[in-house]
Structures are given as structure tokens and as C-alpha cells.
Amino acid sequence: MDVIFEWFRVLYDETGINLPFLYDAYDRNRMVDGFFTTIRLSLVCLFFSVLIGVVGAWLQGSSFKWTRRIVNGYIQLFRNTPPLVQLYFFYFAIGTMLPTVENDWGGQSPILGSFAWAAISLSFFAGAFNVEIFRSGIEAVPKSTVEAAEALGFSRLQIYRDVTLPLAFRVVLPALNNNLVNLVKTTTLAYAIAVPEMLYEANQIWSDNVNVTEMMIFLLLAYFVLVGILVGGMNRWERAMRIPGFG
Amino acid sequence: MSWTPAEPMVSLKDVHKSFGTLKVLNGVSLDVMKGDVICIIGPSGSGKSTLIRCVNALNDIQQGSILVEGQEVNDPNLDKLELRKKVGMVFQQYNLFPHKTALQNVMMAPVRVLKQDKAKAEATARALLKKVRLEGKEGAYPGELSGGQQQRVAIARSLAMQPDVMLFDEVTAALDPETVGEVLQTIKDLAEEGMTCILVTHEMAFAREVADHIYFTDRGIIVEHGPPETFFKNAQDPRTREFLSQIL
């Protein structure tokens, strides 16, 4: 491994192509941390945004007018505002209104850090789209299939969980995949509130080394590979979910 | 109120139903005793399907009374689950769960709704699929089965809930002529075992063969009814006679 890392140092000495996050242990750690922060933020947001989508679509079918109105209001708010503004809103507006806690050095820290706010903000952002995506899938499930479940004595929740959702899920997978790919890319916005994710760490490195071009090329390729892996996984999943003779 | 088999299992009294301003049922009354097989026939739009969909509360009614084993269906506090445990239904378009295999389709309601043990439900489901002559198709998805096979899975799925009465809503209307026979045979087997059946059908020969009683509906009322022999040979009402002359 060290041989490879040293090769990049030689590369820099010989050609001026500077990739310090490969030959320098300190920068390497920063990049690895950034990479895993991006992965962690993506996974947390993927999970919660899908959860919001599933629960929101269920609430949209509620017989209470106000439940439907609140869900619709949430969708409008988060779909019609820029995600960066949402992020700032959560971090600076909501964040500063919350109480602080004493930290290890006797000072005051916000109760939620920038990572938590990024996770909340981006989950709500992608969740709003996911509600609409799941709703379109639920509407595609034939009413007669739901009726058959009703006739068998299924409750509304059982019908949603065992019939509507599994069928809707298969219909919406392509649209859901699109939105989740977007979500992973949007995690770079967390840079704006100093979440040490990949873009942020890359920025730290190019500030120290003045190698903006190299870092930009690397970032572009890194996201291309990262999202490519996600898309590949999603496509496999889509194929695995296919029902023989259906759709 | 406890129900005894001496009373009608299903009893409709002066049932009125409308969709908005459209009156579909205009005072329908009929009684079905335990073990009876009754067929409801009539022209399209005469309210046949609506009539049986009211029996298991898939449609609500505006006026009148429907009793199923003494339980009033036209009641805002109706326990739909209790009702639907007693009443099975088979639809024209089968309406199987497309993401479940034949076996899973049959097992699902007993496991989820009746909270039956999985192993027990599976054994029952396998026996039922055998009964509807679908042995070997347990692992097939609905999309891999023919219409007639799907409809027989749907019948098995209903039977798995051990209903006391079965509703059949034009269950052969969407089938190819060559597969109609296998579905009708399955229903005939059930009727012979003593299952109480209410059928909406256009299969006159079948109605004549299996029904204990035929009801002819038109424009939301029962025009005429009687046992098959007298009904088909000796229809009194001109509307019945016209309908029969067109169809026979």
C-alpha cells in the first residue's frame, strides 16, 4: 500500500499533479472521514426520507381533512423551496432557538450539531418528494384488488401494509431511485453548514495544497462512482422485485 | 340476538340503494336459508352485482335491512370483520394479489385476519388448492395462471376463511368459454357439499342445474322468482319472458 501512496508523491514531484489525499496520511484521513460522513449522511437520509414517504402517503389517505391538509402543506413547503434555504432555516433559525448544553470544555454547545440538522433537513426535503412518489404508486393499485382484501376482512392498516404498499412499491421503484440518487447528490449541500462530508474535506485539502483542479476532478469521479454503485444496486433490486407475469 | 339455522341465513328486507341520484335498488327483499343456492339473473344494470355487494357491506344501503345470521349489516356500528368472516366473495376479475403465489394468496387472510398458525394455514391452503384441482400450482403467481385457474384460486382463497355463505359475482363473465366449465364445476361441488351460495350469473344452464331458487331482477326490483323448473318453463312476467327469450 505504502508503495502506491509513495508513487503519488513521485507523481507530484515529477509532473506537478498533486493528490495529497493519497500520499499524505493526514489528508488521507480527512478524505476517508469525509467519504464515510457522506455515506453515513446518505444512509440516514435515505432511511428517514423513505419512512416519511411511506407514512406520509398513508396519512394522505386519511379520512380526517386536517391530516391530509397538514401532509399537503408539508409537501408544498419542502417541494417549493430550495434545499439550501431549508438547510439554513433548520440550522440557523430553528437551531438557534433550541436550548444549548454544556460541552466537555465547560462551554455551551447547540443541542443538535450540524450533522443532525443536515440529516433532518435533507430527510424532510427528499421525504416530501417520496410522499408524492408513493402516492402515485398507491393510486396505481387497482381498487378491485383492495376490495378483495376488504372482502376477506383485512383492516385498513393490513391492506396498506400487505397489499397496497408492496404493489405500489414495485410501480414507484424507478421514480424512487431517481429521487434517492438526487438525495445522495444533495448531501453535498451539508458543506454549507460545515458538515465534514466529502466536498467539505476536499475543500479543506485544496485550501492547504492549492490543488483545486485535481480535487475537483477527483470529487466528480468519486461521486460518479459512488452514485453509480447506488444505481447499480437499485437496478438489481428492481429486477429482484419483479413478479412473474405481472406488469 | 342469536341466530338459529331455522331462520334465513341471509335476509334482505326492502333494501334501497342509490349512487347519488341514480336509484339502483328499489325495495328488494329475499331470504336465503342455510344450504340454499340461489341465482340472481337479469339484464345489465339491473342491480344484481350491487345487491350482493351490499350483503358483505362493500356497498352501503340507504334504507331497509340486511341480516346475515341475525347480524344487521345496515348499521353504522357494524363490525365489518365479524361480517366478512361469515361471508366469502368471489369477483368477476378474480382480484388475486398479484405479488403473492397461489398458496400465499390462499394463506394470507387466515394468517393475517384470523391470526391462524402459519403451518396450519398452509396445510389448509394446500388442501383447498387440491380441492379446486390446482395441485402443483401452489408456487405459481397469478400472472402465470389462466383465467380459470386464477378464479379457482380466488374461490380457494375465500373458502380458507371458512365462510358460512359465499357470494359469486359473475365469476365466469371474464373467462374464455373453455375455462368456464372448470370454475362452474368447482362451484357445483361446493353447492353439493351444502355451502350456502348466492350467485349473480349469466350462465342459464348452470343456474337451472344448481340453483334451488332463481331471482330475476330488473331496474332495481325483483320482478319474478321461483324454483328453476317453473321459472324457466312458466315465467309469468312479460319482462322475464322477454329476457329469457333473448338469452335462451
Automatic annotation (TrEMBL), chain A:
Entry-linked Pfam families: BPD_transp_1
PROSITE patterns from the UniProt entry: ABC_TM1 (PS50928)
Keyword Membrane: yes
Keyword set, alphabetical order: Amino-acid transport, Cell membrane, Membrane, Transmembrane, Transmembrane helix, Transport
Residues spanning the membrane: 39-59, 80-99, 111-131, 180-200, 212-232
Gene3D superfamilies reported for this sequence: MetI-like (1.10.3720.10)
Signal peptide: none
InterPro entries, per the entry: AA_ABC_transptr_permease_3TM, ArtM/GltK/GlnP/TcyL/YhdX-like, MetI-like, MetI-like_sf
Topological type in the membrane: Multi-pass membrane protein
Main location: membrane
GO MF annotations in UniProt: transmembrane transporter activity
Intracellular or extracellular location(s): Cell inner membrane; Cell membrane
Source organism superkingdom: Bacteria
Domain ABC transmembrane type-1: residue ranges: 35-231
Alphabetical GO biological process terms: amino acid transport
A GO cellular-component term linked to this record: ATP-binding cassette (ABC) transporter complex
Family affiliation: Belongs to the binding-protein-dependent transport system permease family. HisMQ subfamily.
Listed name of the protein: Amino acid ABC transporter membrane protein 1, PAAT family
Organism field: Roseovarius tolerans
From TrEMBL, chain B:
Single GO MF annotation: ABC-type amino acid transporter activity
Protein name as annotated: Amino acid ABC transporter ATP-binding protein, PAAT family
Native source species: Roseovarius tolerans
Residue ranges annotated for the ABC transporter domain, each copy included: 10-244
Assigned protein family: Belongs to the ABC transporter superfamily.
Alphabetical keyword list: ATP-binding, Nucleotide-binding, Transport
Cross-referenced Pfam families: ABC_tran
InterPro entries for this protein: AAA+_ATPase, ABC_ATPase_HisP-typ, ABC_transporter-like_ATP-bd, ABC_transporter-like_CS, MetN_ABC_transporter-like, P-loop_NTPase
Alphabetical list of PANTHER family matching this protein: AMINO ACID IMPORT ATP-BINDING PROTEIN, PHOSPHONATES IMPORT ATP-BINDING PROTEIN PHNC
High-level lineage: Bacteria, Pseudomonadati, Pseudomonadota, Alphaproteobacteria, Rhodobacterales
